[in-house]
Design brief:
199 residues; mainly beta; 5-stranded antiparallel β-sheet; 17 strands; 47% strand
């Protein structure tokens, strides 16, 4: 319900205002922003959440997008001035939940704990949560499927996993992977999935 709509071009392009619009079934426009993580990749991010179980249409106006030499975007359907794609948002009743507790057997360690869960069949389908210290956690809004679960303790609080260095010697941050895979089902909470850091 809070998607990033990613458009990938085969070369860098320039977009004029309102080149991309997203509307719902009532033709109400979705307000959002476009940012460019790469010269050939545009990402449309809605300002708020989309409505659940709703059909939306993305329109790309071809005569408002051109490459660096000034050539306009082409459409295989020469009779249309736009490219469209329709999609339907998820029904929240289809979400599953994984919850449990994080335990650290070394009481002297500190740092926030980052927990990631990744779909086995689609590695880009990854969810992450952060808890400030040991204790309960919950990963919500998971689509059904099989997942792997991983966590690390961010000892230096820089927001990423550090593998350490040899000179000067700095050990890698502590990490844990849950054994096996987890089966997430729609409308179901998988409880008691604990993660234990060893000393």
């Amino acid at each position: 319900l809070q998607p990033n709509i990613v458009l990938t071009f085969n070369e860098p392009v320039i977009m004029e205002d309102n080149s991309i619009t997203v509307v719902d079934t009532l033709d109400q426009r979705v307000v959002g922003t476009i940012y460019w993580p790469a010269p050939t990749v545009a990402v449309f991010r809605p300002e708020g959440s989309l409505a659940p179980n709703m059909q939306y249409t993305l329109y790309i106006i071809i005569n408002r997008i051109r490459d660096l030499s000034g050539q306009w975007l082409e459409n295989s359907n020469s009779e249309s001035d736009s490219i469209s794609h329709t999609f339907t948002t998820v029904d929240p009743n289809e979400y599953g939940v994984v919850s449990g507790s994080v335990i650290d057997e070394d009481s002297t360690t500190t740092g926030a704990i980052y927990i990631s869960i990744t779909n086995v069949l689609n590695r880009t389908n990854t969810y992450q949560t952060r808890i400030p210290t040991v204790g309960p956690y919950s990963l919500n809004q998971l689509m059904s499927g099989r997942y792997t679960l991983y966590a690390y303790r961010d000892a230096n609080n820089n927001g990423r996993f550090d593998i350490g260095t040899v000179l000067p010697f700095i050990p890698a941050e502590r990490a844990i992977a849950h054994a096996g895979t987890l089966s997430v089902r729609s409308s179901w909470e998988l409880e008691g999935v604990d993660l234990r850091f060893r000393p």
